[in-house]
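To the wet lab folks,

You asked to see what we're planning to order before we commit. Fair enough. Below is the target structure as tokens, and below that is the sequence we designed to fit it. If anything looks off to you, flag it before the synthesis order goes out.
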């Protein structure tokens, strides 16, 4: 038993801040926090002066015990007076009883009765129970407020008001009639604050919370309604519309929940009168559009009524404000998963595996909760391995809502509400792995604008801005998996996949990444990367010759982003394609040789280049010959075979002169390297600058970034560190935009040399550590390390070493952001 707590006959004082949510919105977090702190100080001073003992504090509420009723009344009056001038107004309840005292504090009905009394009051008001009133001094001002019902207690209780203040009638007892979820609400603080702000600023008659199945709309609406309940003096009720199929029953369901005399607008209006009343209407989508009319009519006819609606589709009525509920953010998703999982497997904790698991589940609350329940059988590592069939893997408990028992049932609930055109387009859009533009949806699926808009409205499709500033339509992966099953069963599935592949070839060619082009734009390919891979997967099984054409169109992508991936793709396609035309074979070998060169497969690159060169010569393809000669010149440069390099470079540029600008532009760099080998640094810088300027002028930004990097290295040789850093940062910005990990690695290593030259050991160590960690995963790095590292290789200063170890923990893009000061 706590020795400091009064025992025997005790008077409890409960306090609660009125309108705390509104105050938080009006004052802002910082000012509200300061006001709350002052409120606590004043209240504790008044309690201490009257001999009270603080039993518990939760948020802005206090629970205090006094040995006498008079002491409690004195503290209540002092608190009310002290807070009178401030922004915070506190409602106070006093009740006297004989509770049981334990080690944890007080237990018994008297504690709950005191809390319920306080909850009925208004800010600045002090309510007194019938057991406390007779114990107060006869001179104390008490006003009889009549008999009232306390929530969760039978019968009526006569209450009094301490002091002579004027207040509205007491708050309706039991006015918050919302379901009590079995688990705590996790995350969504930002969305809740935004929703509360939306309500206070716009005061919408209808607030519709939108999102796909499993987003947590119902749980969010309940929590929002609880936060807003202080403003609902007419009460807050919850109406589940999921079981209904007849829109005519909507008004009856609302009427029953409010206790109206009849299921019509007049009776509901009479019941609500001028008291602000909140009604949560959960799961309206299956009743639309027919249910929109009755709900709109009700909201317009009863000014004090506010509807909080959850739906996968907006009502599209006057007075409606839409709130699109996104998936949880990454941190919230991990917290939710771990909290739910620990109920069945206590050793689950946040980890990289859990983070990846949450991402694979689209950070959908329902998916996370179902996965957490599965950890009783499978730890997160095994769950992640088995997520390919997530729709069936994730099942709920026996008492789960039928609609939420599995992810499949949740999505099927929305799918069943679609018409035939919507179902057809929904299935066909699953062919896009990474989403699509309107143009692609029209080309592949013959999408109609109205049908596309309807899927957006029903939260089965989402919209975002792509990396090129274009508008893209996409599905959460859990939804796309369901749609893909529908596509698999469709009669036109093969035709849709073929159209998708054709569309990807069109996009790849529009990026101009082949040997014939100069105005290459890798970003076009990066925006469609997932779908290009999907088209290659399809081609490997269905049309490998088409796949080779697509792989050739992606030449610069393989060479800059994933050379090993390009080689694997080409190997698989060549194996399946059988005999192909000499020209296609020459192009394929050209692409393969470039990828092999960057992957460090020098001998394979040389052999493949020679074979491609022979084919181009037989075909009389001058551009092909020039391209391969340039590639062989680069190989000779790496081997420091200067005579062969010069011969191949001059021949390549002679073939390209005035006709093939990309080969001519890149040839200037080779000439610059030859000048450098001859000891002419000034000529090397001039020729490399000519290559960079030519690339910029023709829009060949991929090559431009490489030349800017070369200028960085040449400026270091010249001792001009300012110039070196300027060129390096410019190169890095392009490499980040184009996700060119290889060249970003080289540039970061160069910037580390610049930092070392300036004596900035910490920056040099971090950047070089990140470069070493990334380079260690590349086959060519051992040969490149000396050139890229320079004086960095000899550093053993403790500050440099410590920073180096920190840098090794960074991903290359984190290091790039650090280099740019981001």
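Sequence we intend to order:
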């Amino acid at each position: 038993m706590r020795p400091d707590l009064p025992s025997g006959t005790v008077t409890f004082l409960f306090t609660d801040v009125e309108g705390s949510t509104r105050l938080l919105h009006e004052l802002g977090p910082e000012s509200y926090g300061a006001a709350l702190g002052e409120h606590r100080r004043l209240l504790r001073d008044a309690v201490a002066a009257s001999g009270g003992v603080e039993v518990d504090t939760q948020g802005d509420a206090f629970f205090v015990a006094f040995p006498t009723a008079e002491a409690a009344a004195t503290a209540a009056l002092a608190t009310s007076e002290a807070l009178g001038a401030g922004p915070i107004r506190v409602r106070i309840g006093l009740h006297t009883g004989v509770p049981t005292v334990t080690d944890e504090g007080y237990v018994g009905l008297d504690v709950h009765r005191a809390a319920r009394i306080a909850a009925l009051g208004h800010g600045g008001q002090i309510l007194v129970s019938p057991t406390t009133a007779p114990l107060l001094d006869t001179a104390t001002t008490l006003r009889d407020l009549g008999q009232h019902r306390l929530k969760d207690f039978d019968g009526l209780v006569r209450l009094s008001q301490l002091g002579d203040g004027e207040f509205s009638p007491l708050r309706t007892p039991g006015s918050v009639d919302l379901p009590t979820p079995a688990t705590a609400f996790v995350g969504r603080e930002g969305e809740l604050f935004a929703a509360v702000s939306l309500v206070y600023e716009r005061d919408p008659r209808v607030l519709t919370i939108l999102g796909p199945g499993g987003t947590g709309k119902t749980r969010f609406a309940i929590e929002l309604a609880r936060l807003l309940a202080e403003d609902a003096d007419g009460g807050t009720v919850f109406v589940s519309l999921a079981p209904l199929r007849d829109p005519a029953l909507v008004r009856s369901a609302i009427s029953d929940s409010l206790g109206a005399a009849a299921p019509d607008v007049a009776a509901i209006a009479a019941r609500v009168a001028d008291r602000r009343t909140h009604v949560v209407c959960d799961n309206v989508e299956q009743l639309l559009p027919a249910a929109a009319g009755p709900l709109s009519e009700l909201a317009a006819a009863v000014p004090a009524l506010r509807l909080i609606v959850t739906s996968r589709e907006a009502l599209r009525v006057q007075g409606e404000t839409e709130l699109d509920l996104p998936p949880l953010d990454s941190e919230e998703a991990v917290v939710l998963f771990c909290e739910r999982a620990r109920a069945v497997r206590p050793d689950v904790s946040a980890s990289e595996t859990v983070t990846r698991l949450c991402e694979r589940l689209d950070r959908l609350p329902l998916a996370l909760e179902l996965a957490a329940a599965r950890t009783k059988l499978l730890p997160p590592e095994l769950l992640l391995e088995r997520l390919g069939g997530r729709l069936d893997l994730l099942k709920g408990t026996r008492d789960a809502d039928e609609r939420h028992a599995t992810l499949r049932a949740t999505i099927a609930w929305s799918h069943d509400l679609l018409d035939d055109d919507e179902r057809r387009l929904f299935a066909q859009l699953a062919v896009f792995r990474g989403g699509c533009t309107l143009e692609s949806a029209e080309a592949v699926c013959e999408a109609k604008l109205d049908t596309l808009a309807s899927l957006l409205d029903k939260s089965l499709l989402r919209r975002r801005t792509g990396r090129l500033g274009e508008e893209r339509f996409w599905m959460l992966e859990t939804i796309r998996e369901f749609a893909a099953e529908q596509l698999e069963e469709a009669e036109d599935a093969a035709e849709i996949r073929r159209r998708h592949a054709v569309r990807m070839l069109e996009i790849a060619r529009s990026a101009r990444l082949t040997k014939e082009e100069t105005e290459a734009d890798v970003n076009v390919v990066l925006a469609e990367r997932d779908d290009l891979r999907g088209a290659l997967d399809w081609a490997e099984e269905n049309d490998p010759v088409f796949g080779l054409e697509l792989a050739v169109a992606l030449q610069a992508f393989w060479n800059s982003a994933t050379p090993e991936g390009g080689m694997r793709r080409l190997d698989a396609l060549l194996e399946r394609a059988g005999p192909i035309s000499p020209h296609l074979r020459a192009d394929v070998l050209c692409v393969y040789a470039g990828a092999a060169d960057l992957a460090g497969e020098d001998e394979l690159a040389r052999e493949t280049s020679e074979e491609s060169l022979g084919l181009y010569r037989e075909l009389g393809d001058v551009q092909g010959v020039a391209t391969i000669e340039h590639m062989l010149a680069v190989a000779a440069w790496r081997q420091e075979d200067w005579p062969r390099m010069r011969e191949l470079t001059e021949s390549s540029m002679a073939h390209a002169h005035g006709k093939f600008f990309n080969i001519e532009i890149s040839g200037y760099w080779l000439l610059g390297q030859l000048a450098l080998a001859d000891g002419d640094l000034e000529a090397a810088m001039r020729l490399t600058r000519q290559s960079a300027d030519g690339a910029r002028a023709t829009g060949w930004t991929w090559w431009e970034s490489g030349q800017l990097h070369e200028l960085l290295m040449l400026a270091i040789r010249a001792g001009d560190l300012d110039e070196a850093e300027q060129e390096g940062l410019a190169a890095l910005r392009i490499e980040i935009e184009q996700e060119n990990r290889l060249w970003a690695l080289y540039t970061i290593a160069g910037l580390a040399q610049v930092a070392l030259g300036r004596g900035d050991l910490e920056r040099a160590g971090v950047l070089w550590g990140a470069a070493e960690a990334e380079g260690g995963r590349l086959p060519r790095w051992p040969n490149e390390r000396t050139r890229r590292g320079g004086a960095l290789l000899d550093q053993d200063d403790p500050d440099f070493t410590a920073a180096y170890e920190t840098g090794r923990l960074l991903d290359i893009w984190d290091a790039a952001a650090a280099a740019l000061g981001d």
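Structural context that might help your review: The two ends are 56 Å apart (CA to CA). The longest helix spans residues 20-49.

Thanks,
Computational group
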